[in-house]
Design goal:
The complex is a heterodimer of chains A (about 300) and B (about 325).
Chain A lengths: L1 H4 L4 H36 L4 H6 L13 H47 L5 H12 L7 H10 L6 H8 L3 H14 L2 H9 L4 H12 L1 H17 L2 H6 L8 H14 L5 H24 L1 H7 L7
Helix pairs in contact in A: 2-14, 4-7, 4-8, 4-11, 4-14, 5-8, 8-11, 9-10, 11-15, 13-14
Chain B lengths: L1 H9 L17 H44 L1 E4 L3 E4 L3 H6 L3 H34 L3 H11 L6 H12 L5 H7 L14 H26 L4 H8 L4 H12 L1 H16 L3 H6 L13 H12 L2 H33 L1
Antiparallel strand pairs in B: 1-2
Helix pairs in contact in B: 2-14, 4-5, 4-8, 4-11, 5-8, 6-8, 11-14, 13-14
The chains are: A mainly alpha (about 300), B mainly alpha (about 325).
Chain lengths: ~300, ~325
């Protein structure tokens, strides 16, 4: 096509970029429709009552005649002694403590790898890179058996402690620290008599903020979205995070054909509420994560 | 371990100069003092790494070692637990249920990863080219599914696929046809392909996009002066320059797909039996452990899955490294 257009008169050639932009915008529009459609469906569906969900007057992608969102949310929060609220709290607890812990550990280790020379550093770092390649779910069953020997399964610790492991976070922090914290700055701080810890907290840490936010976001999302680990570790429903709780409802609803209609509408509105915190976090924290997510492939 | 070493050199951080060694000090007295300082600093280095070291040993090395240990034993109903060597592994690698799952995830990655890469790379190139408000909005919207848990994503698509009230059915009925059920035995592969692409393409797009934004724009001007078309700029300059981001994504996608669990596990109850308890290796191991209490065999399956992933990534890194050195 480009070979053809080079022979065309100048007037048509001028309009080419514009036409190309139209094509590009249409392409983007199609992508946006595809990526938003399920989320739009979820919003619309959570405003319907149990009957409208299955036999709505205006199809699956548009609102029913009854706007039932508030009543659905009230049902959701009241169902079975408010277990949904409990799950929401648990998800928050696991995501925040696991995320903060993993981030703190990653920053310290990444800094240690990047800025200190010691025997065995290269070997330990090679081990770490190997660990990035270990599929985390392959560890779930062995960790479960190990923790059940210590009587730690079915406690919050069974979910929080394994979530602290983040080899990729350490790798990111090491890459970023090596670039963002000049050795000369550290040496200057040491000459001025600052101890190693004080140098870390007052000189280096402020420089590491972008990577810090990224690793925090990645590990919070990872823990919030985790399903396999809590599913394996927990058997008390009160300790479930949202993912496992909604999965349980889904199983109940689909094994109870016909009678499960009301549970399906709870699942829909529960799913809708459960994605709000992260969606809001990503939309408001844009300027932090947009650059940060590419850290792993820094040139 | 050799491969880890070489990956490390291929990754960017090694380009940062290590601390320059000070020239040999003229006097003994000074040298011994700086030796003491270095020793102290090395200790501090270890202290910084120590918390991670503890977590690493407790939740990675120990479970791996324990899984290996457990997998060498067999628990029989009458015989009790006995040492059985590699029997569980021989069993696993001749177990049609395990092999079927492995074959599924391998086949799935071979189709999924190119599709995902094509979508995310195309979107990133278009976004890099446009600077309109619509483009910025699209970037955010395409990324949004990353914030949705896999469990919820799978549930939503399960509803959308539904033959009784999903929008697909309504769309097809306009033409007096009936929509294919995307979770049926024949279609479940594509049904899942769509769910995973939807979930991850935006995240990969952002990584590629950020790498594209990091390219020095004077390169494009130079290419334009040399008469390169925009297509040539995209294929000869942009794509080669973001290849390290592409490799990173490929590795993520490969590791993620081989341990496929949440989506099929969630869609299982609404798939009318086309998602079986041995659908993927992880689902199989989960059911062995928690459905049948076969912890020894489940450990062997987990460990085997870990080995399969490790080898797959190893082969992949070796292949892409070769290509990279040919280019340069």
């Amino acid at each position: 096509m480009s070979a053809l257009t080079t022979n065309l008169p100048a007037a048509t050639r001028l309009s080419r970029p514009r036409r190309r932009n139209v094509v590009a915008h249409v392409f983007l529009g199609v992508l946006v429709l595809y990526f938003l459609a399920p989320i739009w469906w979820l919003f619309v569906a959570s405003t319907k009552d149990a009957q409208g969900l299955f036999a709505g007057s205006s199809g699956a992608m548009w609102f029913d005649k009854n706007f039932n969102l508030i009543a659905n949310i009230q049902d959701l929060f009241a169902y079975n002694g408010g277990e949904y609220v409990q799950w929401l709290g648990n998800s928050l607890l696991y995501a925040v403590s696991g995320g903060l812990g993993a981030t703190a550990i990653s920053v310290l280790a990444g800094y240690g790898f990047a800025k200190y020379k010691f025997r065995g550093r290269n070997l330990t770092f090679a081990l770490l890179i190997g660990a990035v390649m270990v599929p985390m779910t392959a560890l779930v069953i062995p960790t479960f058996i190990l923790m059940s020997n210590l009587k730690l399964t079915d406690t919050v610790w069974a979910v929080i402690l394994p979530s602290l492991l983040s080899p990729f976070g350490v790798y990111l922090m090491r890459v970023y620290t090596a670039e963002a914290v000049p050795d000369e700055l550290l040496d200057a701080a040491r000459v001025d008599g600052a101890g190693e810890l004080r140098t870390f907290f007052q000189v280096s840490l402020p420089l590491l903020r972008p990577a810090l936010v990224t690793v925090l976001l990645l590990s919070v999302v990872g823990t919030w979205n985790n399903y396999f680990l809590p599913l394996a570790m927990l058997s008390t429903e009160r300790l479930y995070p949202l993912t496992v709780g909604i999965g349980l409802w889904e199983q109940l609803a689909s094994s109870n054909n016909g009678g499960g209609h009301s549970l399906w509408s709870l699942i829909v509105v529960g799913s809708f509420i459960s994605i709000i915190p992260l969606v809001v976090a990503f939309l408001t924290l844009q300027k932090y994560w947009q650059g940060g997510l590419s850290l792993g492939s820094l040139k | 371990m050799a491969v880890h070493g070489s990956t490390v050199t291929s990754l960017p951080h090694t380009s940062t100069p290590d601390k320059v060694n000070p020239p040999p000090p003229p006097e003994r007295r000074i040298r011994s003092r700086s030796d003491r300082m270095n020793a102290r600093r090395a200790r501090t280095g270890w202290l910084f790494i120590a918390p991670f070291g503890v977590v690493f040993v407790a939740f990675l090395l120990a479970p791996l070692a324990y899984a290996l240990y457990l997998s060498l034993f067999t628990k029989g109903l009458a015989t009790g637990t006995r040492f059985s060597g590699l029997e569980n592994y021989l069993h696993a690698f001749s177990d049609p249920q395990f092999l079927k799952g492995v074959w599924f995830v391998v086949r799935f990655s071979l189709v999924l990863i190119p599709v995902q890469m094509a979508v995310s790379l195309a979107a990133a190139l278009v976004l890099d080219h446009l600077t309109t408000r619509l483009a910025r909005f699209s970037r955010l919207m395409i990324f949004l599914p990353y914030a949705v848990p896999a469990v919820i994503g799978a549930l939503m698509w399960g509803f959308l696929y539904s033959p009784t009230f999903g929008p697909l059915e309504q769309l097809f009925s306009l033409f007096h046809a009936s929509a294919p059920f995307l979770l049926s035995q024949d279609n479940v592969f594509y049904g899942l392909l769509n769910v995973v692409t939807w979930q991850w393409a935006g995240y990969y797009m952002i990584i590629i996009y950020a790498a594209l934004q990091g390219i020095d724009p004077t390169l494009y001007e130079a290419a334009k002066i040399d008469g390169a078309s925009e297509r040539q700029v995209a294929f000869r300059i942009k794509i080669p320059l973001v290849s390290s981001a592409l490799v990173l994504i490929l590795i993520f996608a490969l590791i993620g797909t081989l341990q496929f669990f949440s989506e099929p596990q969630i869609l299982g109850p609404v798939a009318n039996g086309s998602i079986t308890p041995d659908f993927t290796p992880n689902i199989y191991a989960f059911n062995l452990a928690f459905g049948y209490a076969q912890f020894n065999y489940a450990s062997a399956i987990s460990f085997s899955l870990g080995i399969v992933v490790f080898i797959a990534v190893y082969i992949f890194m070796f292949a892409t490294r070769k290509k990279g050195s040919n280019l340069s």
